[in-house]
Structures are given as C-alpha cells and as structure tokens.
Amino acid sequence: xxxxxxxxxxxxxxxxxxxxxxxTARAGHDxxxxxxxxxxxxxxxxxxxxxxxxxGINLPESIxxxxxxxQLQGRQIILFAVPAQQxxxxxxxxxxxxxxxxxxxxxxxxxxxGSGHYQHQILAKYFPQExxxxxxxxxxxxxxxxxxxxxxxxxxxxxxxxDKIAALLSTPSFRLYSSDDLIGVETxxxxxxxxxxxxxxVRGMGLGASAEAALFARGFTELQRLGMAMGARSHTLxxxxxxGDLVLTCSSPQSRNFAYGVALGAAAxxxxxxxxxxxxxxxxxxxxxxxxxxxxxxxxAVASILDGTVTPKQAMTMLLARxxxxxxx
Length: 329
Fold this sequence. Notes:
Blueprint: E1 7-11, H1 15-26, E2 30-34, H2 38-46, E3 64-66, E4 77-80, H3 87-94, E5 103-106, H4 119-126, E6 131-136, H5 141-145, E7 150-156, H6 159-169, E8 174-179, H7 182-205, H8 209-229, H9 234-237, H10 240-249, H11 256-265, H12 278-291, H13 297-306, H14 312-320
Parallel strand pairs: 1-2, 1-4, 2-3, 4-5, 5-6, 7-8
Antiparallel strand pairs: 6-7
Helix pairs in contact: 3-4, 7-8, 7-10, 7-11, 7-12, 7-13, 12-13, 13-14
C-alpha cells in the first residue's frame, strides 16, 4: 500500500464509528459510514453532524453516510465499529457486499457471548482470504472526534500489514502503533472492561481511593495472568491495548463499564445506562480462567455479581477474606 487515497467504509454509526470515520477522512481517504438510522445519515450528509452520538461535533464534510448496503461494494478497507455482540449478525447481512475489500478491521472490544470468540476470529470466518486486523487502545470517541491526542494499537498476524494500516490511518492527533499480537491486543481490550466494572463497583460503594488503587493493581495482575494463558504476550498486555486502556477505563465516568460498575456498587438503577461490553465478557472470562486453572478472583467476583450469585458487598467480603500471599504473581 502507498500513501494514495483508499476507499474506506466504517460499519456502525455510534460514537466510536463516527469518530473513526472522522479520522479516516482527515487522513485523506474516501470515507463512507454505513448505519441503520436514516435520520442520522441525513444529518451527517447535510449538516455534517451526528446529533445522537456526537452532539456538537462538526464532522469532515467529505464523509458520506448511507443506510444502503449496496453502496459498500468496492470499498477496500472496512472498519467494523459495531458492538462485539452484534458483529456476527452484522456480518451475515453485509458480507456479500464486501467482496472487494482487502483489509478488514475489528474495532469493538469484547468476547462473543456463547462462543467466546475474539472479534478477529469471527471476521476470519467470513473473510478467510482477506487481511484481518484489530484496533484497540485507550480512546474515547469524543476525544478522537475533537482531534485530541490519542494513541492506539493496530494488530495483524503479519507486522508488515499492521505497519501499512498504521501509516494509512494515522494523523497528527491520531497515532497508531503496530503489533503482530492479535490475541494480546484483543485480550487487553476485552478484559479491561470487566475490571472497569470492578473498580466502578468500589467507587459506587464508597470504599475510597486506596481500595480502588488496590483493585486496579491486582486486577491488572489478573489481566496479565489470564491473557498470557490465552496466548497473549506480556509486553502487549503492558502496552496501550492492555494497561493503557485499563487506566483510561477505570478512571473516568465517561467509561460505560466504569459507570455501570458505579451504579451496581451504589445499588442504583442500570436501566438507562449505555451498553457495557464487560457485562457479556465477565462470565466468559471467568469460565476461561477456570478452564485454564488461572487464579482470577476479581474477574470471577464480577461475573458472580452480574449473574446475581452474590451482592457487591458479599463479593468484597470474599475478596478481603482470601488468604494472604506474596506479590510475585
């Protein structure tokens, strides 16, 4: 690939998909965003705004939005920015229109409920001949859209492929670091959501900053332990897509998972809160930890809280009652 203009499609008109469309347009590419809401598509095309997902943000005028899947034909690079649990049904509907694509990028964070598959594994089943990549790291859509400095990781099985996409999509404010550790990049993005719920619960219970810091540190140990058992590399988990994303997600109420945890800890209603992917990932991660004989008490506690087995207070009591141990692992 050279520095020439490419025809790119972003699938998903949420905040993150809209922000990614902005990035690709600012990088000089022909960007089409596919979404289901005709009113939002009309607003993006006519007023260059997504009032539902990124209100008040002016989008590049070169972005085109559509609800017509036929218009996806001929797009060379596809970014899937739909929630993790919606990827497979979205692929079932749209894959026939994406036959000319050469690079397919997973942009959601989470393991598929039921199968436990990573996003890149699902994509590979539908696009066995194409180059599959995963994009992850510490990022809020509003920061990307406002052109605030953001750094993420783009991963592919072959580092050269990751390098090429990093060069194509990076802008002065949006910096991509390449990796050939797909498992590591996706594992960090999935597990940090579960741990953000845990830290949010502690915040909601009012247990103090010291407790939050302790849970964060021990949670990161679990992320590393389970991630490496799943085939991730240690340096990936300590990088942007692991530790970096965990720091962001556990420290801001902008994080959907953290906000969900706060509501759980405060015994407040979660009914009107936005989707938190960690809800789906927690049980899968706890099951993987059990099957791999990995000690992950915080992840398991979150899964038990979410399935109603224990209350947040009971889970905290159980965690504090665990035998003392050294900090070597």
